[in-house]
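User: Can you write out an input/output pair for a complex, sequences first and structure second?

Assistant: Here is one pair. Inputs:
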Amino acid sequence: MRKQFAKTMQELGKDERLTVLIGDISHFLLKDFEATHPKRFYNMGVAEQAMMSMAAGLAMDGLIPVVHSITPFVTERCFEQIKDDLCYQNLGVKIVSVGSAFDYASLGCTHHCYEDIAILRSLPNMQVVYPAAPHEFDALFRETFTNGSPTYFRLPAKTHNIQTHPRFGEAEKIKSGKDVTVVAIGPQLQNAFDAAEELSRHGVGCDLIYLTTIKPVSAVSQKMIRESLEKTEALVTIEEHSIIGGVADVVAAIGRGIRYDEARLGVRDMFLTNYGTYDEHCAVNGLTKEGIIKAVHEIKPKNNL
Amino acid sequence: MNQKDTKNIRIDILDMVYKAKEGHIASSFSIVELLYAIYSGMAEGDSFFLSKGHASAALFAALAHFRKISREEMLTYCEYDSRLGGHPKRIPDIVMSSTGSLGHGFPMAAGYALAKKIKNESGRVFCIVGDGETNEGSIWETAMYAEQLRLSNLVCIVDNNNSQIRAKTSINIEKKFSAFGWQTATVDGHDIKQINDALFAPRAHSLAVPYCVIANTVKGRGVKQMESDMFSWHHKAPTAEELSAFKKEILS
């Protein structure tokens, strides 16, 4: 994903407004951009509050700043700068983070971030985009970078291998099925897809819906999600994020008034104080193919199928 | 002439705050001469950011004086559908940035100054920061960035009104900016000639580094009761009796 980020910046760098500010990460990957556009590349070190406000100042003069750093530092540490300077003034600053959720599993909770989507989607004017394959970042960044609104791009370390067709603001139906609505975001699309394949071999049909834009979700996509919930009356959400404020809540708001059973897979209301690997954290939080199949069986026992 | 103008600006601030029953008069009074000098001296391409947003009443009174907004609009201060409130809201071409939470306007001004460098635009970026505001870490992050990015088109004016003496004081501000690699100067912040000279004399235009002017000011300047009891007057509207007494004192 980071490589694609560098490639997309390099290709779009011919737009003289694009200006990249990094928080002392990814310099090697962005060296071509730096070499081609030295006046529009700044390694700002680790002063995220002023970096974010300065990006707002750049946008006021018509530039398109891209601020890039590690998730907790470029979202939570400078949250008020994002609120006041980007969102309140509705300036087109693009934030691109890496290291969300427990991508840096072994570095501990200060370097985890499973609240970024929750806090950022609470801000008016903010757009929240979560691509999980290189072509998704490229397409969604190109579609939004000139739209003049603050946008957050969450880039996961892991990617999925599913052929998707991302469009800003639109949910995508990956598979159709009559029994359970499965909504996945991020690289968990892979597990959700594999789980749906296996369930289908056992006669359980999953309506698999994938969101690359968490905010906003278009009226058409909301209708698609509502129709799915009305049909299946069962929902499993899957996210590498807290089950508070993430896609589970997005879908709950969209499905208000519809009666359905629900299971939320994600990080519960707790810190993941263990170290280890990304895969170990996925396993503990039920973010595996098996975890998804188990959740589907729990909310949709066999006799109800 | 100048003195008559700054008296009128103070009267306008009192009227605005009295009518709205809301505002920071004393913090506004400390920057009246600074705003007057800046708006008198700014050239084509220059811009101004008010980082200490709670002095918005002074900004709007100055904007009305210099005919950037109408007097009628000025008097809508703090009304529900007014563009002008207790902290400023961005109005492109008139009010550069929304501020209020301290330590935001200064880095935005620095970002704007950097954009001018990137785009090869002329003009300088002026920014008033409060002395208390320099408690915020983002001020020093910005001071560091401005040095490294050689933002010689950025001018920080510190309204050094000592209003923070109840808190841990912001002391030696000039030495601190100087240690961060800035060119510095100190002026009497109520002496328009001194301010004008520090900001607009030819030597101020040809610096290689960012520039910080420490303006020593008096919080509540112009009304004895506010000067001596600045804490009570930090965030308070006057009564009708106080309004007329203060106006009389200012005009005397």
